[in-house]
């Protein structure tokens, strides 16, 4: 099945501007065009767009995303390098999640304090 950029925009809830930008930056390999120059997206393209969005939403730089795309285009011999990049990114995301969880706990304690639990905001050691 093929999709136009407008259909992809609606299907993935992304702006056409973002899709064009990602293509221009080389983050979306192998977008085909018809004889009129209209982009035609297939299921593989949708998968890549979803992965790029995942990487970007989790804080990966455009440069790192581009590097993964370039390595992917080089073929099977780059699997280990791609895996290493993703393992490092995963560790960063996990650290961010741990930090957010700690902050969420503090926010919960503050809410408890506002609800009348005056012991909720006592300073606790970080052991």
Automatic annotation (TrEMBL):
Q: Which SMART domains match?
A: HTH_MERR
Q: Which CDD domains does this entry report, sorted A to Z?
A: HTH_YyaN
Which keywords belong to this entry? Coiled coil, DNA-binding
Identify the InterPro entries for this entry: DNA-bd_dom_put_sf, MerR-type_HTH_dom, MerR_fam
All residue ranges annotated as the HTH merR-type domain in the record: 1-71
Which is an annotated Pfam family here? MerR_1
**Coiled-coil positions:** 76-110
Q: Spell out the protein name for this chain.
A: MerR family transcriptional regulator
Q: Which organism is it from?
A: Pontibacillus salicampi
